[in-house]
Amino acid sequence: MSEHVRHIATPSGFLMVLRQGDDVLARLEELMLAEDIASASIMGFGFVSKARFGFFDFDRGDYEPRDFVDLEITGLAGTLAWMYGIPAIHAHASGAGRSFGLVGGHVLDLIVGRGSFEITIVAHPHRLVRAMEPDIGAKVLQIHV
Amino acid sequence: MSEHVRHIATPSGFLMVLRQGDDVLARLEELMLAEDIASASIMGFGFVSKARFGFFDFDRGDYEPRDFVDLEITGLAGTLAWMYGIPAIHAHASGAGRSFGLVGGHVLDLIVGRGSFEITIVAHPHRLVRAMEPDIGAKVLQIHV
Amino acid sequence: MSEHVRHIATPSGFLMVLRQGDDVLARLEELMLAEDIASASIMGFGFVSKARFGFFDFDRGDYEPRDFVDLEITGLAGTLAWMYGIPAIHAHASGAGRSFGLVGGHVLDLIVGRGSFEITIVAHPHRLVRAMEPDIGAKVLQIHV
Fold first, then answer.
1. Chain A residues with CB inside 8 Å of C104's CB?
2. Nearest-angstrom CA–CA distance, B136 and B95
3. Between chain A and chain B, how many beta carbons pairs sit less than 8 Å apart?
4. Secondary structure letter of residue B100 according to DSSP
5. Neighbouring C-alpha atoms within 13 Å toward the C-beta of A2
6. What pTM, to 2 d.p., does this model score?
7. Residue predicted with more confidence, A65 or C57
8. Phi and psi for C27 in degrees, rounded to 5?
């Protein structure tokens, strides 16, 4: 049997399968560097043992964090871009706990639980960057003609 | 620096970045007209200052609306098609408030908040229309051989 | 007028429109067989009259199920693969009820309600299989170099 890998190339980009203990954002950053992804849209789902979501507090200029354990992530949506030459991932997600109720928000951290996490990456050829826009106090994906 | 735009073309369709105050459905309609999009599937996420979701009431034949403010939209899923020659967007979304709990439903209105809203559009070449189907009292995307 | 169909081919895969009474997972299995889909990523949304979600109980090694009625599914995310030569679908979803609160989890069953359910399928050329991995007690999508 051949070795497990964490991603394969597809006609539209890549398909990732992450495993127990994998850090979702860190693995996506590694993928961006390994495959030199200029920019991409991503969608994912799977089981996580830990999720840290944030809700942006414009007074403080930072995310108010909250940690959750053992969630069936029902949807991760995000984009991959660059900032100061390093990967800059922006993603939101929602997840269901044992009670089937949902929680979610801006993704600050996701660790794959006992099971897996599957991510579909639709790659774009444009090298896109995020930039802090002082007038709104938030990082925004920059697109230009 | 070149001018900000709200969308760029990608191999699979378009990538949109909307900004504070933008009306998500209105901007998508403009995109359909500007780029003559025959039909498309869309996915998005971002921060909205206002969301109006609907839950269909088949007795009344219309959506029961509910307004929410300041939501991290964790996922928008929809399709772009046409009805009577004008854009007809069908989308559902979910969003997390400050308490990290989620609300959502059929999208009647979304206004981008302090931050941004990113949408990935996968374009299809078929000119698709929606039609009211009297037997179920709902508009359905029509696909034919 | 030509006959309604449940799917059409697109440049990236397929677009499905399911109707009242359709079993979402069964229709996706039929699509995989009819179009010989090697593997795919899917996203969907729509109205269901019945949803059965599961939350995995590792002690029992099976999903704890819960049934819900009349949900606006705000997002379905999944992958299509094979196991022992038959279709093996893995999908998670979230849905809003009349109160606009969300529930969700691993999809065990979804039946389309009065309305429709639209699914976008991004096809991949790799014939992918799921396999039970005894060390974690879960089925995992297998990808190899």
1. 72, 74, 94, 96, 100, 102
2. 28
3. 114
4. S
5. 6
6. 0.97
7. A65
8. -70, -35
Distance CA B54, CA C38 (A): 37
Tens digits of per-residue pLDDT, A24-51? 999 999 999 999 999 999 999 999 999 9
Q: How far apart, in whole angstroms, are the C-alpha atoms of residue A76 and residue C82?
A: 23
Show the beta-strand stretches assigned E in chain B: 7-10, 13-19, 39-57, 62-83, 86-96, 102-124, 129-133, 138-142
- Answer whether A74 sits within 8 Å of C75, measured CB to CB: yes
The rounded distance, in Å, linking the Cα atoms of A100 and C117 is 21
Mean pLDDT by 10 residues, chain B (145 residues): 84 97 98 98 98 93 95 98 98 98 98 97 98 92 92
Residue B41 CA to residue A120 CA, distance in Å, equals 15
Buried residues in C107-140 as b, exposed as e (16+ CB within 10 A): bebbbbbbbbbbbbbbbbeeebbbeebeebebbb
Intervals of chain C under pLDDT 70: 1-2
Contact residues, chain B, for C17 at CB < 8 Å:
140-143
Residues with Cβ within 8 Å of C26's Cβ and at least 6 positions away in sequence, in order, are none
A-C contacts (CB, under 8 Å): 115
Say which DSSP state C143 is in.
Answer: -
What is the pairing mode between strands B39-57 and B62-83?
Answer: antiparallel
Specify whether the CB–CB gap between C92 and A73 falls below 8 A. yes
Q: Contact at 8 Å (CB) between C92 and C106?
A: yes
Helix/strand/coil for C38: coil
CA-wise closest residue to B117 among B2, B30, B27: B27
Instruction: Calculate the average pLDDT of chain A.
Output: 96
